[in-house]
Hints:
The protein is mostly helical. It has helices spanning 4-26, 35-121, 125-150, 178-185, and strands at residues 152-157, 167-172.
Amino acid sequence: MATNTQFNRVGSDAVTAERSRRSRQTTRRRGTPPRGVLRFATGFVLIVAMAAAGFGAGSYTRAARSERRAATLQAELEALQQRVAGDEQAAAGERRHAGSVVARANDLQRSIQRFGWQLQSVPSEAQLAGLRNQVAEYATCLSQLQREINGLQLSWRIDATNPSADSFKVFTSAPASAPCSAALTGP
């Protein structure tokens, strides 16, 4: 059996062995940080790296969406530029057409003004009726005037001693009627 000293030695050996295990665990090399600090720093760096990777992945997906959106907007811009070019050509055609319409309208306006002047120079229906009546009166008096002209005679008297008493007299043997004389001389 074992004696008390043996137990003490065994116990002390166990205590010594335990201490040496602890001391090996806590012993560190010079210039190296303790293991707990190292684990904490490693964990922190790992968390930061994972967060950065998450932000990077999110940024990458946002960038991809932005690029797709930019490509879509670029295509829309090109389509709008083509539409604007077409609209500008159409507007230029419309301006040319409007210019020709304005020119035709100005020509038409000048024609209307000329026609208006011509209308002003054309006698009215009342003026034409008055002219017809006057010509008809002259026509009725024409035969009487021819007789009067055929019957015209001239007589004169010249006094050489008294020139102020000289006279010339035109007379007719067939004078025109009073209405014809009034028509010819006017009212």
